[in-house]
Amino acid sequence: MSRSVTWYLRRLRGMSPDEVLHRAGDRGRQVLWARRRVGIGAGSESGPTPVPGVLPHRSFTATLPSEVRELVPEAERDALVAAADRMLAGDFTVLGFPRPDILEPDWFLDPVSGRRAPQDALAFRIDHRDEGLTGNVKAVWELSRHHHLTVLAAAWWLTGDERYAEVVARQLRSWWSANPFLSGVHWTSGIELGVRLTSWVWVRRLLDGWPGAPGLFEHNDIALRQIRWHQEYLAAFRSRGSSANNHVIAEAVGRLVGACAFPWFGESDHWRADAAAELERELAANTFASGVNREQATDYHRFVTELGLLALVEAERSGHPLGAATRTLLAASLDAAASMVDASGRPPRQGDGDEGRGLVLDEPEADPWSALLATGAAVLGPGDWWPSTAPCVQSVAVGALASRSPVSGRPGRRVDAFADAGLYLLRTPEGEEPEIWCRCDGGPHGFLSIAAHGHADALSVEVRCEGVDLLVDPGTYCYHGEPAWRSYFRSTLAHNTIEVDGANQSVEGGPFLWSSRTDAVLDAARLDQPVRSWAGHHTGYARLDPSLRHDRNVALDTDDRTVTVEDTVTGSTSHTLRLAWHLGPDVEVVLEDGSANLSWGAGPGARRARLRLPEQLGWSAHHGETEPVLGWYSPRFGVRVPTTTLVGSGSWSGVLRLRTVLELDLTAPAGATHAAGRAVLTEGDRATRGQS
To answer: How far apart are the first and last CA of the chain?
Structure first.
């Protein structure tokens, strides 16, 4: 059986009967719509036929107040303009890969493999999962979200320099010409259309006042056709069932934002109302009551919250506000985001993260979490306990559209426990320095039946000190094109938890598909004592042995500055295990006598710690290995760097108890250092120290 057929069978098992019927309907609709495809060349001219449903009188009224640009802080303005200038000089990076062609982009180029994805083919016949056909499709799609064009449009808004506006106009005309309806890879995924439509709204808004803007949009039949095509496609082909995750949110937001800002069609009111209803329903389905996104992937929490804020302000501005329940939900999502971050403003790194953005109006490399909280503060207001937020271009512009009516019932203090999401934070008391921050993963594996963006990371932990990663979550690195790397970064071994018999806790069915899921269960949590503690367990390995169970207790002693992890694994037969501790890339390691001596920083900020390892296991250190993959960290999507992973290996039957203690010495200098992130092993620690 071919890999493709196997994948489809696994995927089918993840669908409900209702979803199967809906997808069958989509396939039938694709057959009917195939004759509507517009070929390359035909889409570059408006032709004599009027745009269907377009209203005779059109103007753009979704503008920003003229005084708003004066509220942008000078530093953020200068950073944005500098980024736009670098772009005009051909200096731009997309998901870790340079795009020197940014001024005249090849919209179909995968810079990773050098392949060009199909352009002149019916979209419904393009399998974007086939890397041999499309290359790394994520890299192909990303540029066509047009975030770089919102950056250039923002530069025009701030400076009035026509160079930026002219490049935006040229590239939009280029994209519209190269991508007529249903031709090519950019019509194969609804999330891309939704994000792109949102970008177009903000491009038009930011270019308001530029003489060429009306002729580029409302008086341009090519633009009107593209806007209509995007609306029709998104209304007809919706993410459903097991795919109704962040994709359906982006699709609904694009429809809503586009219909509110571009109400130039006879169907615009219907599109707006239908999109608003879908968005409110799906946003609630995607969000726990605590405000945490259900995908168990923190970066998608940010993405979905940002999209929701954009829809909220657009609907309010148009006079058709979303409901009070949606405002309350978005406020809860913002409060959760503000609670999660450590003292340096960094969030947890749970599950997948691909740096997806709903809108980019600041220097593209600026911290998106800072932008989210600043925008949330401008739209719904911050909590008194929030970390400080500085205004940015995006927060000023988006906030200018908000009603700023308050949301009641918000928490009066930082939250450390999100029970429905299984996210628990053990950390030093607020205001006490230096901060020790520990995330414990004790909840669902992921969202919906396929848990597309979840990792096999039940009971894993992250530990930071003053914002520096000590025990790290590995990140994501890639989605497409490198299956071995995709599998590693999602694996149990890649996380700070226990792997049994060389298998993942959950069975991988594909790059965005899990054939089985391991949900962790909370046993206890005490987060307001001098010794903060959490305990949970999972039975994901019961498929190997019905008695197999992993219990974990984590305790942070805020006085002694220790983090203790006690693991108990139980089974009825003999099994092997590996316990992994992944150290941050800035941590230097010396492994000796059953302990790892850690050091990081330099000068007055130099720190050190000792990681006391379970003596029942044989310990080895791994750094940047590829056969097999081990000892890697992904600081951002598309980038991987070597780091040190300590692996304790052994076997057991019955009950095995393991104890790991991280002892932090935050008063003395670190002393002698080694090559950054490298591990030094004594010969005795290369061999197994014992088995139980």
So the answer is: 41
Are 207 and 262 members of one domain? yes
Query: What's the burial of 231, exposed, middle or buried (CB within 10 Å: 0-12/13-18/19+)?
Result: buried
Average pLDDT, rounded, for the chain: 93
Does residue 64 sit within a domain?
Answer: no
Strand partners, 549: 570
Confidence of residue 685 (pLDDT cuts 50, 70, 90): very low
- Do 631 and 591 share a structural domain? yes
Q: Are residues 262 and 379 in the same domain?
A: yes
Residue 50: Cβ-neighbour burial (10 angstroms; 0-12, 13-18, 19+)? exposed
Contact yes or no for 501/575 (Cβ under 8 A): yes
4 falls in which pLDDT band (50, 70, 90)?
low
Q: Are strands 679-681 and 588-592 parallel, antiparallel or unpaired?
A: parallel
Q: What does pTM read for this prediction? A: 0.94
Q: How confident is the model at residue 25 (pLDDT cuts 50, 70, 90)?
A: confident
| CA 256 to mean position of chain CA atoms | 22
Work out the number of other CB atoms within 10 angstroms of the CB of residue 276: 22
Residue 691 domain-assigned (yes or no): no
Return the SS3 of 396: helix
Choice between 12 and 153, residue whose per-residue pLDDT is larger: 153
Please calculate the CA angle 17-22-25 and round it to the nearest 5 degrees.
130
Residues 584/596, Cβ–Cβ less than 8 Å: no
Give the helix ranges, DSSP H, for 262-323: 268-285, 298-317
pLDDT surpasses 90 at 11 = no
Q: Note whether residue 569 is domain-resident.
A: yes
3-state SS assignment for residue 499: strand
Residue 244: is it exposed, middle or buried by C-beta count within 10 angstroms (0-12/13-18/19+)? buried
pLDDT exceeds 80 at position 684:
no
d(CA 200, CA 181): 17
Q: Which amino acid is at 80?
A: L
Claim to verify: residue 590 and residue 523 sit in the same structural domain: yes
* Phi/psi of residue 64, nearest 5 degrees: -95, 145
Whose CA is closest to 138, among 179, 97, 83?
A: 97
pLDDT of residue 373: 98
Residue 82: CB atoms within 10 Å: 12
- Regarding whether 393 and 428 lie in a shared domain, the answer is no
